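Much of what follows relies on a compact textual record of a protein's fold. A record is reproduced here so that you can trace the correspondence yourselves:
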Amino acid sequence: MTKKSDAPAIRFKGFSDAWEQRKVGDLLIERNQQAPMSDEYPLMAFIANEGVAPKGERYDRSALVTDTVNKLYKKTEKGDFIYSSNNLETGSIGLNKYGKACISPVYSIFEPTGIADSDFLGRRLVRKDFINAMVKWRQGVIYGQWRIHESDFLKIEITVPSVEEQRKIGTYLDQLDHLITLHQRKFEKLTNVKKSMLEKMFPQNGSSYPEIRFKGFTDPWEQRKLSEITDKVTEKNAGLQYVETFTNSAEFGIISQRDFFDHDIAKLGSLDGYYIVKNEDFVYNPRISTSAPVGPINRNKLGRTGVMSPLYTVFRPHDIDTTYLEYFFKCGYWHSFMNFNGDSGARSDRFSIRDNVFFQMPIPIPDIDEQRKIGELLTCLDNLITLHQRKGKAAVSGCSNDANNSKGVCCKARDFGYKCHKKDEPNRFDA
């Protein structure tokens, strides 16, 4: 007999029955079919947290098998569950999303019954609450791993809806997974395109010509010193004219110190000695990191004025497109100048270079129209990268189980092709 349980915070339209508490053994039945490996049922591996997958070099033990004709393996079909009784801590349950295969007989194989959907269970049985329930059944230690016998595994109870609602949930989450993968792939592709553009759109090794250019531009580029196109900012914040302190992050660029650290690091009384940083000013941060081996140079795009520690070098551009200059500092060509003329200094986390040397840095410059073209292209790429990054993150959070955030859940569902049911039913949405 099943026991009734409360319904979840959000549901699809048309489903109102309470979820039922059932044993795993009601939902899964063992499949114990053995056969030699074949073209129809190729030998596959079971990988923790991945399920059935082709054997890679790490998992391929075929060289150890002397009898490939008569050796029997367990057959598995798409939608089956593979269970390892000895691997609770590293992932003991996996869903076969591959298809027909055979795997080692050390594993147990289960197929869903008529009241279970494999996609739904595939997610339900790897949730932390289910793993915690499994822990209660663990026995002894075998080779450092907790063992949970198959018979005990089948006794564990979980709450499930009807098989129709299971399918709805499974399909919805599969669609979210597809969207996440899609946007992640586009994000990675665009990131690689941007990296290539940064490498090829600026001249290398003292050349006057980049590897690729926009149509219509053929003139050689000029070499200008940084001191010829920028002015070092030496204006101090006398009288505490500005109180917002900026910081220069290699990852996030110039942002408010409070946003970066969640509080103000600089003391108000010390701000009169800080440099004033206006919108469109550039800042060099000598702190080195993996992503900024000689320290980052970033442009203030906050649209407001703030102050920056005198440990930073602030400079204001002129006679150059600021977007072009920003992207030049995102490529790595200027690093060679820094490495040749500076060093890591007394502190291993800071790069040291004298100001008069720093402003001798050579900057390759085309005419202003080509500068703008380059800036526009790279800005467009950045916008696309940000778009797919945000959509991927939105898809990840698109199925929240926060009962207090039902409006947000509904809105996120709508973003992915679902629509809210009614204003008076904010916790329901239609597929």
Notes: The longest helix spans residues 163-200.
